[in-house]
Design goal:
Largest sheet: 8 strands, antiparallel
Shape: globular
Distance between the termini: 44 Å
Low-confidence stretches: 81-91, 451-460
Structural class: alpha+beta
Strand order of the largest sheet: 15-11-12-13-17-9-8-19
Length: 620
């Protein structure tokens, strides 16, 4: 990941050109000081980068499931002090771009745990509906506390992320958020105290329930951060660290109870009422629009603008009717990519489609969109049409969710009402099934160009070569490897072997075209014009050469069966790494294919697979 991080940094103008960086489930979200320094075309060609999107004032690099690792590698290099960058040509941001940037910056950091909490809430609702658990059991109370804690204390979590985003101290804003939920305040609200009997130095206080609220604490955090910057500029350094948070708390907390909180609460209630009014007028149309366009919003990063609205609906109304409309949109993409998997005759494309479909079921659609559906055009279109059809059904039954989370298969558990399974639940199943099935069938029959059959009079001539097993062990499919790049087939077709010995041998004759400095991987250029990558272990580059002892050098010719490397698989496992040996076709793989000859256990030197290649051109 360090190499990919270096490549990304070099193509966005260096680490000094980064103003801010966060990541979501699949994307690195940069805010660049000068976007003109970014080399987007080059970045799109980088292995490991699925897509680059510029939207909402953000420079988004789509990575996939390894985004957290790449983010960590980039952050590690950003620890040095930032240097000045010429920002004279910084883009002028629109108000909408700033809004998208603020929303994503506030909600992205806790998106994963929020999705997990929502899923747990849905599963508990399912358990009650199926009578697997009772609401008065100890197990239910403990698990419900785990699922509801984030939502109840959401103002504190939002206060922290908002404080970071607005450039203030997140701990000051956290204290403000905690004040909104303090037991004293909540007990006064529960007892029905009014402004007439409760005041702040003569000013009447309006006590509200701020549990699970969204907008009040965000506005309070913005004001606190603004005040903090003004105060710091005017207070002597000797007392600044004490006086700044003191003044922020003394001023912001009362102001929030007196003005910011009531106004923001009224605004949030008005927003929820306005949405409900529009939705009640045209629920079927709303389903068609959201079902067809949601993935388009995702591509451009515009979906972040809807997150506060969904959370606000949950906070004010106790449910949200927008999120269920998105389920057909997501499963439409899954259906389309399944259609590609079933129709395609390209083993690499089928493997990638299978991996993307699995990710899509759990709410991560970027691999399906950028890896399969969007490049093929028609599958993406069919997925959007299927999403519209299914969304109309879901809108008609007016389904709702009762907890927040990623749109995934777990959403079906989140739509179960407190009263139990009803028609809206079955309607959501039907609508989602229509979207998935339509996209699958349309893609299968019409989504891919017809395969051009080779005339039998002029068959394509191929040669086949036997590739030997480089090590003894158990054969595994690449798709089972816990590394997205290998499992998806993005690094080429191949096979994996979980080793039972410590000696790695050449699978065929050829020349060593490269050896990684860490010793964990090498490339062998075969006599058939194909280059084979032999990679020992998953993420073993982090071992920095420990436990790998190459016996060859770049440029050296080797014969089949010749010793290439000694490895210490026990030490690799003890260090917490998977020692699986991976063989993939890289250079020349577009004119080659493999046919597996073994399954289960294999010994060093056994025939492993047949390598089918086109004949090399003869030299005059």
């Amino acid at each position: 990941m360090e190499e990919l991080a270096n490549t990304i940094l070099s193509n966005i103008g260096g680490k000094d050109n980064i103003e801010s960086l966060v990541h979501c489930a699949t994307r690195l979200r940069f805010k660049l000081k000068n976007s003109n320094l970014a080399q987007t075309a080059e970045l799109k060609k980088t292995p490991g980068v699925l897509m680059v999107v510029e939207s909402g004032g953000q420079y988004q690099v789509v990575i996939g499931n390894d985004v957290a690792k790449v983010f960590a590698a980039i952050e590690k290099q950003r620890q040095q002090a930032e240097k000045s960058v010429d920002v004279s040509s910084r883009d002028k941001e629109t108000l909408f771009s700033r809004f998208i940037d603020v929303v994503s910056g506030i909600f992205t950091p806790f998106l994963g745990v929020m999705a997990a909490s929502g899923i747990l809430k849905g599963l508990l609702a399912l358990a009650l509906a199926c009578h697997w658990m009772t609401a008065d059991s100890g197990a239910y109370h403990v698990l419900y506390a785990a699922s509801d804690a984030l939502f109840f204390f959401l103002p504190i979590v939002l206060a922290y992320t908002a404080g970071q985003k607005f450039g203030g101290s997140p701990f000051i804003t956290m204290a403000i958020g905690a004040a909104l939920l303090h037991p004293t305040i909540r007990s006064l609200f529960a007892s029905g105290s009014t402004g007439a009997s409760l005041n702040f130095f003569g000013l009447p206080l309006t006590l509200l329930d701020y549990g699970s609220s969204v907008m009040p604490v965000i506005f309070a955090a913005w004001f606190s951060c603004l005040l903090e910057k003004r105060v710091q500029a005017r207070i002597p350094a000797a007392i600044r660290n004490l006086a700044t948070p003191l003044l922020c708390l003394v001023i912001t907390v009362p102001l929030t109870f007196l003005l910011i909180g009531p106004l923001a609460t009224q605004a949030s209630h008005g927003l929820a009422a306005g949405y409900q009014w529009l939705y009640a007028l045209f629920p079927v149309l709303a389903g068609a629009v959201m079902g067809s366009l949601w993935q388009v919003f995702v591509i451009f990063g515009l979906h972040w603008g809807f997150i506060p609205l969904m959370l606000n609906n949950l906070s004010v109304l106790g449910y949200d009717s927008m999120l269920p409309l998105l389920l057909p949109a997501v499963m439409g993409q899954v259906g389309a990519v399944l259609g590609v998997m079933l129709r395609s005759r390209d083993s690499k494309q089928r493997s990638l489609a299978a991996s993307a479909a699995t990710a899509g079921l759990f709410g991560i659609t970027e691999p399906a969109i950028y890896g399969i559906n969007l490049p093929a055009k028609r599958p993406f279109l069919f997925a959007c049409i299927g999403g519209a059809l299914g969304g109309m059904v879901v809108g008609y039954v007016q389904s709702k969710v009762y907890s927040m989370g990623l749109v995934s298969v777990f959403t079906f558990a989140q739509i179960i009402p407190p009263s139990g399974v009803d028609g809206s639940v079955w309607g959501t199943f039907i609508g989602t099934g229509i979207a998935c099935l339509f996209a699958l069938l349309a893609t299968f029959f019409f989504g891919l160009p017809a395969t051009v059959k080779t005339s039998p009079r002029h068959p394509v001539q191929t040669e086949q070569h036997t590739i030997l097993s480089p090590i003894s062990g158990n054969i595994r499919q690449l798709s089972s490897i816990h590394d997205t790049a290998f499992a998806s087939g993005a690094l080429g077709a191949g096979i994996a072997i979980h080793p039972t010995t410590n000696s790695l041998h050449a699978p065929c004759a050829g020349s060593i075209s490269g050896v990684q400095p860490s010793g964990h991987a090498l490339t062998l250029h075969t006599e058939h014009g194909v280059e084979i990558l032999i990679h020992v272990g998953i993420n073993t580059i982090h071992l920095q050469g420990q436990h790998f002892h190459p016996q060859i050098a770049p440029g050296q010719r080797v014969t089949a069966g010749q010793l290439l490397m000694h490895i210490d698989r026990e030490a690799i496992q003890a260090a917490g790494y998977d020692p699986t040996v991976l063989l993939t076709l890289c250079q020349g793989a577009d004119k080659a294919s493999i046919q597996l000859l073994q399954a289960g256990q294999v010994q060093t030197g056994d025939p492993l697979f047949l390598l089918h290649t086109e004949p090399l051109p003869t030299q005059a």
